[in-house]
Amino acid sequence: MIVVQLFGSPRIVVDDQPVSLPRRRSRALLYYLAAHTRPVSREQVLSLLWPDHERSAAQQMLRSTTVCHPAGVERRVSYRRRVAST
Question: Which of the listed residues 2, 4, 15, 67 has the most CB atoms within 10 Å of its CB?
Fold first, then answer.
């Protein structure tokens, strides 16, 4: 189970083990998605995390951000909180 604690110092726990995401954007993406109860559009994520980049470059950065999570986190998060493909 994944637990994302957003009150106080943000914290990620996977199967009762704390997890550290070294990349700031990876943490920001996970925290942003965890804070929403509905799917978030890809456009919202791109404009939030990469507002000064061309869409194609921002999409590539999003792809690289989502595959850099520690073992198991990316796969589990993608099933629970998908970025809508709109």
Answer: 4
